[in-house]
Specification:
11 strands, 369 residues, sulfotransferase activity, EC 2.8.2.-
Length: 369
């Protein structure tokens, strides 16, 4: 645009010089907000974690000012602090069950299904089932977001009383290599990993983050910016491919203790997958239960449609890192292939090539539609 040209509106004339100054002022304001947010985050951390963060690579965050690369994966400062506490203080029991996912790949669904399978004798009457009045995240606690958040060291005997013989069931987004050592070294702890195709995982993550992104951070997080970061591996607990391959490879080495499930397969054939899941956990369905359609009842109780319409998941709230979180944000569509409504052909081609490269030779493939 020639230097003498002006942009006219109904109320003012803005010269290019004024526009540049306005943009510079906006950028400076955005940087100031990010610095303020980062400072506030740091103030909530213990000194050990603050010093660690200063030594870690960092990139622009999705819903926080920055993500930090800790033990090879990207996460928020408060997550790093809680993961360190988990790694230091958690000690597994041989009967423990660990549910692992990368964010936005069916975590809530997996928690509901496993809770229902393990506790089906205790809550045989589905009309009074805890899942009807409690969000799955309250029934199966996250290690890093709840139990060890804010540098806590919980007394797990209070969380899981020994008055019944059910296994302790936990959830995590932590990559396999960074799990606490007694989990990885156990020959009996069961790990269930649920994987979702990278296209839908990305779109679900982008929607989720924009719902939770603080108003104090500048503008909306664009699809284009998110896509670039995702392809560079800069996403919570990512890169996606490293997170998935970590658990996939362990499931091939130790199929008796690591079960690898696919979201798309479960949507396609829930009964067969629940049968496999129950057997893996040590709670197989009996012939009589199958005859009485217990598997189908559990699938129905834990379905996306059922959970989304429950009052606790429409208006209920949970605490994460001492902040309230609205349960409704956990439920959007829960379908396979929604990415086609958002990604252009160039994005699809780029992500397809990237995943072919990263998963080459692994034997792992995804259904994307």
């Amino acid at each position: 645009m020639p230097s003498s040209t002006t942009i006219t509106t109904t109320s003012m004339v803005i010269t290019p010089t004024q526009s540049t100054k306005h943009h510079q002022k906006f950028v400076a304001g955005a940087v100031a907000v990010e610095e303020k947010e980062e400072k506030e985050e740091f103030e909530l951390l213990i000194q050990e974690c603050k010093e660690l963060l200063l030594s870690l690579p960092k990139e622009k965050g999705w819903r926080t000012p920055f993500l930090y690369q800790f033990e090879g994966f990207w996460c928020q400062p408060k997550e790093i602090q809680s993961i360190i506490s988990f790694q230091k203080h958690f000690k597994s029991k041989e009967s423990d069950v660990i549910l692992a996912t990368i964010p936005k790949s069916g975590t809530t669904w997996l928690k509901a299904l496993v809770f229902a399978i393990i506790n089906r004798k205790r809550y045989s009457n589905t009309q009074n089932h805890p899942l009807l009045t409690s969000n799955p995240h309250d029934l199966v606690p996250f290690l890093e977001y709840k139990l060890y958040s804010n540098n806590q060291v919980p007394d797990l005997s209070n969380v899981f009383p020994d008055d019944h013989d059910q296994p302790r069931t936990f959830a995590t987004h932590v990559p396999y290599p960074s799990l606490e050592e007694s989990i990885k070294n156990s020959e009996n702890v069961k790990i269930v990993y649920l994987c979702r195709n990278p296209f839908d995982t990305f779109i679900s993550s982008w929607h989720f983050i924009n719902k939770l992104r603080p108003e104090s951070l500048p503008d909306k997080f664009s699809l284009e910016d998110a896509f670039k970061m995702y392809c560079n591996g800069v996403v919570g607990f990512g890169p996606f491919w490293e997170h998935v391959l970590g658990y996939w490879n362990e499931s091939l080495k130790k199929p008796e203790t690591v079960l690898f499930l696919k979201y798309e397969d479960m949507k396609e054939d829930i009964v067969s997958n629940l049968r496999e899941l129950a057997s893996f956990l040590g709670f197989p369905f009996s012939v009589e239960e199958e005859r009485e359609n217990v598997i189908e009842e559990i699938a129905k109780l834990c379905s996306f449609e059922k959970l989304k319409e429950l009052e606790v998941n429409k208006s209920g709230k949970a605490m994460t890192f001492s902040k309230q979180f609205e349960n409704k944000h956990l439920f959007r569509k829960g379908i396979v292939g929604d990415w086609v409504n958002y990604l252009n052909p160039s994005m699809v081609n780029q992500l397809s090539q990237l995943m072919e490269e990263k998963f080459e030779g692994s034997g792992l493939s995804f259904k994307v539609l």
